[in-house]
Amino acid sequence: MLNYDSYSCISSGANHAIYIGLPSREFEIKKEPRNTFHDYRKQGNYGEILKGLDKRVAELRIAFNEHQKAHRAVTNFGDDMADVTKLYARAREFYEAEDYEQAVELFEELALLGHIAACCDLGVCYEMGYGVEEDCVKAVRLYRKAALSGHADAQYNLGLCYEFGQGTLKNLEKAAKWYSAAAEQGIEEAAERLERLE
Q1: What is the DSSP letter of 34?
Q2: Residue 77 and residue 69 in contact, taking contact as beta carbons nearer than 8 Å
Q3: Domains and CATH numbers, the chain
């Protein structure tokens, strides 16, 4: 038990002390329930929480970096589609000459501007490891973005990824869906693969 009778407080800048008399009170020290934080740590969930936070921070950093790149790209080209078309032609020249690092740099800039063909080409670079470290998951994400916008080659490539489980879970139903979409736009290979699946 703790007894408190009074306490004093000297105000800053004042030349007198303030005394406050308090009636004697008894304070009982009670044992509090175990802290939830320690419960999580004890149960092994603490590490999972930290991993989740680290993952979210990493995702936000990536999103912020992409936002900055997109801002620079828009600043450089604005709405001038003639410049964008020239830039894509230049990127394709680098790609055909197998100067993949230069090609990837331009494809990434164009992809941030929403250039669908550049998204597909960049997906190929990530899938094959041309000019960048191979990353099939990122390739699928790029293919999907272009495929949803109606790019035939991206639809075919996405179908292949689903058929063979490359960069995503194998899903023959989705593979058929994207092969069908590509075949409707005249991709003969897509029509052939669709027949094999059926």
Answers
A1: P
A2: no
A3: 83-197 (1.25.40.10)
Distances (CA, A) of 64 to 58, 135, 163: 10, 20, 33
User: Per-residue confidence of the chain (198 residues) as pLDDT tens digits?
Assistant: 444 443 334 444 433 333 334 444 444 444 444 444 444 444 555 566 666 777 777 766 665 555 455 445 544 444 445 688 899 999 999 999 999 999 999 999 999 888 999 999 999 999 999 999 999 999 999 999 999 999 999 999 999 999 999 999 999 999 999 999 999 999 999 999 999 997
Q: What is the pTM of this model?
A: 0.61
Dist CA 194 CA 162 (whole Å): 12
Q: How far apart are CA 114 and CA 193, in angstroms?
A: 29
The encoded tokens of residue 110 equal 């164009």
Amino acid identity for residue 26 in this structure: E
